[in-house]
Backbone:
């Protein structure tokens, strides 16, 4: 079951509160898990139990996604707005420079947290921010199409589609290389999360201006990319390595954009190895 934490943050209108939903399990060094745009913390379910055998795992619904409400008025969904909220979240949960692993948007946030030395290591799975303009437009068009599809389908239609492998592929084939492995309940839940998330449009708008250009010398960084990522093409991983020469660049054979479900054992091993 998810817990909720409410904590103070600074906004242009003064001190306000943010609320974040999270799940915590396991023991050991703390490891925060950050999902991608339109998703929710349950994206990490296939690997969370494996990680929890060695880590204190904190899977987070980013503000405006999953069960976490929207950010207070005046707080932006760009890196300048969200990273301070995550820093305040770490303080509220008594996390002193945790490890962090992030996918897509979560990977970009993980890199910024590492750049600001707020974490002790960063594992990024297909992180955003290393695209060309054409690649960004393509990815954003695909995300908007997924959102429109989620908004247009009734709950009953989603349930019917989720019951078949072909239907799960239609709903989630953009982000999974093996969508048939996703359970019907998980597909229904993530389609609902995509339809209902309050932060989608603002996050996408903020992303139009994003390129990650910082070298990160003092925090270990791992960049892992699925060889079958259809949303952020794997050549962007080569650019990430050029920007962060000290990063480990790892291929995830047969994995899509959200690789945790495509190959849980491989993804968990990459994260555990990188956070030792």
Residues:
């Amino acid at each position: 079951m998810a817990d909720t934490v409410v904590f103070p943050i600074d906004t242009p209108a003064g001190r306000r509160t943010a609320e974040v939903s999270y799940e915590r399990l396991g023991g050991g060094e703390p490891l925060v898990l950050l999902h991608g745009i339109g998703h929710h913390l349950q994206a990490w379910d296939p690997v969370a139990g494996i990680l929890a055998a060695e880590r204190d795992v904190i899977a987070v619904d980013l503000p405006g996604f999953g069960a976490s409400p929207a950010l207070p008025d005046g707080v932006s969904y760009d890196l300048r707005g969200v990273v301070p909220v995550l820093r305040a979240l770490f303080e509220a949960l008594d996390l002193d420079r945790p490890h962090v692993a992030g996918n897509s948007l979560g990977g970009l946030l993980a890199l910024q947290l590492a750049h600001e030395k707020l974490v002790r290591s960063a594992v990024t799975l297909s992180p955003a921010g290393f695209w060309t303009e054409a690649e960004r437009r393509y990815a954003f068009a695909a995300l908007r199409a997924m959102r429109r599809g989620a908004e247009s389908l009734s709950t009953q239609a989603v349930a019917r589609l989720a019951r078949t492998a072909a239907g799960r592929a239609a709903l989630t084939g953009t982000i999974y290389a093996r969508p048939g492995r996703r359970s019907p309940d998980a597909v229904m839940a993530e389609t609902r999360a995509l339809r209902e998330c309050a932060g989608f449009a603002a996050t996408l708008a903020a992303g139009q201006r994003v390129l990650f250009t910082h070298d990160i010398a003092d925090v270990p960084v791992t960049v892992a990319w699925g060889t079958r990522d259809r949303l952020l093409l794997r050549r962007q991983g080569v650019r990430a390595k050029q920007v962060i020469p000290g990063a480990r660049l790892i291929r995830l054979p047969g994995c899509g954009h959200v690789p945790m479900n495509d190959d849980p054992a491989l993804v968990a091993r990459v994260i555990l190895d990188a956070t030792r």
